[in-house]
Amino acid sequence: MRRARIKAEGHGFYHCMARIIGKRALLGHAEKEMLHRLMRKYADFCGLRILTYAFLDTHTHFLVEVPERVDIDDEELARRLDLIYESFQVKQITQQLSDLREQGMDAAAEEFKARYTYRMYDISEFFKTLQWTFSTWYNQRHDRCGPLWNERFKSILVQGSEQALLATAAYIDLNPVRAGLVTDPKDYRFSGYGEAMGGGKAARAGLKTLVAIYGIHAPWGKVRGIYRRWLYTQGVRRLADAAHGKAGKPGFSLEQVQQVLDAGGELPLPELLRCRVRYFTDGLVIGSREFVEQVFEQHRDRYSPKRSQGAHPMRHGQWQGLCTLRALLTHAVSVP
């Protein structure tokens, strides 16, 4: 029996991951384009914000903001329904809702409306719909049947702090670099950073939200430089930037990183984010000690009475006080 997912009470941030069954490389360009289209459509329908993402051949990453649930009016419901339903279906739904209103049956109208709004502002409903729709499309396109995804998606509850969110965002946007697909994250089109650098308005809005959490409210022209400096300072081995006449600043090689890890030493954050870090995928909750302890107390009944504390400091590096709910004793950090 699987455990219920750990969620925030209301507003929250999540790092979500889904892997193709058997770790097979089934996501080509056409598949990633469709997944991207569906992601944007269903995020808008559900009222969620995609802060950044990365689609690789075998798996996907998303950093999602789920706002507080709010009531939407009938006009907004019609707009959102139009995103995912055929026009004749939307017309039928809105007409039935309008008829109930005109008859003074507001309670019945709200009950009818709830058949559609229950999927909004919920991370589980968003991914359930996204994965089911994409799987159906994929199987039809490739004349296959059966499950496409390896079980249900994973999610990590991320504290809405600058340290936790920016570290998680950098980890996601640097996935193509760790996988050896590109040397510069801006060149990978199927990621939040790559899409933003290519002119994508929705992707730019996501990165602007991240930088705003850091305390800087600025237009894209300034945000672009701030986020790029963050990626290169915090996660990428410093490469020469010929376009701007800047010399490269080499970091540790992967061999040197492995030596430090084998010796039980700690790595600075720039090198850590070039590694595979299971804390971002298997830690359940990530944030400050106080944040993780608070979530632990909210879900105390899930754990043994013998467990005295919830927060486990992230090991192997300079994580600026970040902790996770799950203690990862082996292979928490490894080189790609």
Structural notes for this entry:
This protein folds into two domains: 245 residues, Alpha-Beta Plaits, CATH 3.30.70; 44 residues, no CATH class. It has a seven-stranded mixed beta sheet with strand order 2-3-1-4-6-8-7, with helices on both faces. It is globular, with a radius of gyration of 22 Å. Helix 2 runs antiparallel to helix 3, helix 3 packs antiparallel against helix 4 and helix 9 packs across helix 10. The chain has 14 helices and nine strands. Strand 2 and strand 3 form a beta hairpin. It is α+β, with helices and mostly antiparallel strands.
Helix content: 40-55%
Count of the domains: 2
CATH architecture of the largest domain: 2-Layer Sandwich
CA gyration radius, whole angstroms = 22 Å
The termini sit apart by 33 Å
From the spread of the alpha carbons, the general shape counts as globular
Report the top-level CATH class of the largest domain: Alpha Beta
CATH superfamily of the largest domain, by name, is: Transposase IS200-like
Order of helices and strands: EHEEHHHHEHHHHHHHEHEHEEE
